[in-house]
Design brief:
This protein is of the alpha/beta class. It has helices spanning 2-10, 15-20, 50-65, 79-92, 108-116, 144-158, 178-191, 209-222, 234-246, 264-271, 286-297, 315-321, and strands at residues 39-44, 69-74, 96-99, 121-124, 138-141, 166-172, 197-204, 228-231, 256-261, 277-280, 305-307, 312-313. The protein is elongated.
């Protein structure tokens, strides 16, 4: 029975459906216990990008390898769905909850409920802004401010001899999400040192290709001289490339493009000369997450913050890396 439910849940049932199959899976319930009986409730943001798809796969396959029973719930980019899923995991008495918070704010109440039920929580990929850091055991994921800084540093170097103003448009990630807030801040800090860099338009593209295209089309109409596009992820950059080509301009030449993630499609566009620089953000968090979960449930100490290691790619580096790229 348990196996069948897990398979169904992995197949993508929503939080509401998850509530429905609530109390039937109690094999590892009751908090803690031996490794082989661990049940993890995992609330994913959605399936908005190539990054997210790779992240979901990584979490699912790592759970399987570690013999952790995963109850997977897709929130379709909605915080209310994540809150429902977490409540449902609490009701089901899972051993541990992991989730990737779609936005930073508004989690205290539900996290307190998990804490009261003595179910430990691990934040993966994205952070929350709760003042009470005892509400979660650790935060595993990238340093998004650093990613924004790396994007800015490339730009400063690329235009170091330029005298004229450099007009930049920015496609932000999901409004209120940690990666959108931090990638914006890190980038702004670095380019802010030189007044020739001007962000002439900045809007959310919600981390999706379709929205990236739509917003870039609007930018191209409203802003005549765009030199650079900074997109908070590859998918929005890829959507924007379609808009740029549609407007009769050459992406990577007429408009230089910087993105974040380095998923396969992004790396291909970089190798093809349509993107100029990508800051890597690794979605392969699954193995570390399972390892941390096992340690927490054994009562071992774990660091309060686990930062993912990542690099950057220019066009030549992308050509070299593509054949062995995992995602
Ligand atoms: O960069 C983007 C995704 O939270 C790091 O979410 C993640 C971001 C990633 O949709 O592509």
């Amino acid at each position: 029975m348990m196996k069948r439910i897990t398979a169904l849940v992995i197949a993508g049932l929503t939080a509401a459906a998850l509530t429905g199959c609530g109390s039937s899976g109690s094999e590892g319930g009751g908090g803690g216990g031996g490794d082989d009986a661990i049940v993890m409730g995992f609330s994913q943001v959605g399936a908005e990008s190539g990054w997210r798809t790779a992240n979901t796969k990584s979490v699912q396959s790592a759970a399987e390898k570690s013999k952790i029973t995963l109850r997977f719930s897709d929130a379709q980019q909605k915080q209310e769905n994540q809150i429902k899923a977490i409540r449902s995991f609490v009701q089901q008495k899972v051993d541990i909850i992991a989730f990737s918070p779609v936005v930073e704010s508004g989690w205290d109440t539900v996290l307190k409920e998990a804490q009261n039920a003595k179910i430990p929580v691990i934040l993966t990929d994205r952070a929350v802004d709760s003042k009470d850091t005892t509400l979660y055991k650790t935060f595993l994921g990238s340093d998004f401010v650093e990613e924004g800084k790396k994007a800015g540093q490339w730009l400063v170097e690329e235009y170091k001899d330029a005298k004229d103003t450099v007009n930049i448009v920015e496609l932000q990630g999901t409004t209120g999400s940690a990666p959108a807030n931090d990638r914006k801040a890190g980038f702004a800090e670095v380019i802010g040192a030189d007044p020739k860099f001007k962000i002439v338009a900045s809007q959310t593209g919600d981390f999706t290709r379709a929205k990236g295209k739509e917003v870039m089309e609007a930018f191209l109409k409203s802003t005549p001289d765009i030199d650079v596009l900074y997109a908070h992820n590859d998918d929005m950059g890829l959507g924007a490339i379609e808009a740029i080509e549609g407007a009769g301009k050459v992406p990577g030449k007429d408009i230089k493009i910087i993105t974040v993630d380095a998923v396969k499609d992004g790396m291909q566009a970089l190798a093809d000369g349509k993107i100029n620089f990508i800051v890597e953000c690794s979605p392969l968090l699954g193995p570390q997450l399972m390892d941390l979960a096992q340690k927490v449930l054994k009562g071992e100490n774990i660091p309060a913050r686990v930062v993912t290691e990542e690099t950057t790619f220019d066009q030549e580096q992308a050509k070299a890396a593509l054949p062995t790229r995992e995602y």
